[in-house]
Design brief:
SH3 type barrels, four-stranded antiparallel β-sheet, two-stranded antiparallel ribbon
């Protein structure tokens, strides 16, 4: 699929929307066209601690989850279908 794909353009309208992804509160933050993935940012009461390059605790930051748009056969992935079911109406 190319960058002008109407499906991906419709998905772009989800950016900024909140959703529930396998029991986790998330927000859609980006569509990666080249990788055909959708990026979610988790919203947790206390974000997990991120480490620096040496494995030392550095700061707290929300986790990012990448969801494949399509499966190996070219159909919509189960993860994407689950995500679309969990998108909250009205932002």
């Amino acid at each position: 699929m190319n960058d002008a794909d109407p499906f991906k353009e419709r998905l772009r309208q989800l950016i900024g929307r909140h959703c529930n992804f396998y029991g986790r509160d998330c927000r859609v933050v980006e569509i990666l066209n080249a990788d055909e993935r959708l990026v979610l940012e988790t919203h947790e009461v206390t974000p997990p601690i991120q480490t620096d390059q040496y494995g030392q605790a550095a700061y707290r930051s929300n986790e990012h989850i990448e969801v494949a748009l399509f499966d190996a056969s070219g159909e919509l992935s189960d993860e994407l279908l689950h995500l679309l079911d969990g998108v909250k109406r009205g932002g």
